[in-house]
Design brief:
Blueprint (H helix, E strand, L loop, with lengths): L1 E7 L4 E9 L1 H12 L5 E11 L1 H12 L3 E3 L3 H14 L1
Parallel strand pairs: 2-3, 3-4
Antiparallel strand pairs: 1-2
């Protein structure tokens, strides 16, 4: 289960995530991101688990300019490794 809370200020849209991100949630998030006009920030403080398949989406979102806040070190390294492997 993943809880998604969207909030907005004049500079960016913040999605606060908590729980487990699986492939279905990644697709749902992509749809939400596609509809945003402001820059997007993901707060990952409360994310407890990420499916392996979702890491490629996270890497792509990062490359597309989505900012991550409170991203656990293991997940940041996993994303960076995925980005390096794509090159």
């Amino acid at each position: 289960m993943l809880k998604i809370v969207r909030s907005e200020n004049p500079d960016f849209v913040l999605f606060t995530l908590s729980g487990h991100i699986d492939v279905e949630h990644a697709a749902e998030l992509q749809v939400a991101f596609d509809g945003e006009a402001l820059p997007t920030v993901l707060d990952l403080r409360e994310v407890r688990r990420v499916d392996r398949e979702v890491v490629a989406d996270l890497a792509r979102w990062s490359a597309d300019g989505i900012k991550f806040e409170n991203c656990p070190a293991y997940l940041r390294e996993w994303i960076a490794r995925t980005q390096r492997d794509r090159r």
